[in-house]
Specification:
- By secondary structure, this protein is an all-alpha fold.
- The protein has 13 helices and no strands.
- The radius of gyration is 21 Å and the shape is globular.
Length: 395
Amino acid sequence: MTWKNKIICYLSAQTISQFGSSLVQYALIWKITLDTSSGLALAISTFCGFLPQFLISPFAGVLADRKNRKMLLIASDALIALATLWLLVMELWQGADIGMIYVVLAIRSLGSGIQGPASQTAIVDIVPDNALQKVHGFNASLNSVSMLLAPALSAWLLASFSFQFVLSIDLVTALIGISMMFTIALPQNNTGQTVTYFKDIQEGWQYLKTQPWLAKLLLYQAMLMLLISPTAFMTPLCVSRVFGNELWYLSVAEITYSLGMVIGGIVIAHLSGFQDKFKTTFLAGAFYGLCMVGLGSFKTLLLFYLANILIGISSPCYNAPLYTGLQERVDKVLLGRIFSVLGMVNSLAMPLGMQMFGPLADLIPVGYVFVGCGIVVLLLSSYMFFVNPCTTKQL
């Protein structure tokens, strides 16, 4: 099997499995919303969805570096599917209460935390360096299509069928994805090594200390995730406050962002960008900040949606070069641990940002929050673009 056939099979397996998981994830959140109408319940569900992933990430990075990545991906998919199966059995037997859903969200978060570093490092095992960015762009488009379809399809399924039926879809897609993964041969040179978790985690942090460019890049990533959290979580709030509570206003806001991500994935898959991949990331970050300013400033719905599409376009143009640059430059032996640190940054910074900016949006117009954060993102990313601590000379 050529690497192209292998990556098509790999991405297909991951997309099918993740699409089923997305359907169930939306179904779980909406069931909590409909059953409780409680902001506290949704806050707890968010906590269950983020914290386990954050806590498992360091150990998941070590496993991705030391163990069979293919089996890690299969095991994480199976763990998520088993959690869904348990909830399905409980729902059929006696009816699932809110506590059971919290437990399932936490287990699914653990599975996602294990899956993240293994998934990114497995791509390096399959794809040659000169095709990494194109593959990441294509993968971003696949994920965006899933994001575009999953909310609407999940809502339709819940309205047309039972909650149990939606849960069963995740089991079918997981089975298909796992079966496809078994057909893919990945290098197993990481197996058979003794795993000393805390020593290996310390080794990863020591590597960061010897690579100041990488530490600065991860600090920038943390600051960016913190600052973009308002547009990531509060765009519907902005729509409802500025333009009205019409359901289709909110739906189109979600659709335009996902549509932009599809376009962005296609764009970055066909454009090489700067030779230094991180410069492309920084430029996309600056463009994202500019679009945030537009999103918070525009009082015309059409212009608001246009800004949202452009934000969606900038996301793959930011992420694909970032992942490609890391995969090209980080020591392959430590790549899983570095991706686990990146996962920790992402899973902590955005919820932390919401703790900061969510209450602020109740004191001042949410558009002002978008504009203020967007200006800082624009300035920060522009600084990184021109200074560029990740130049080849410094590596």
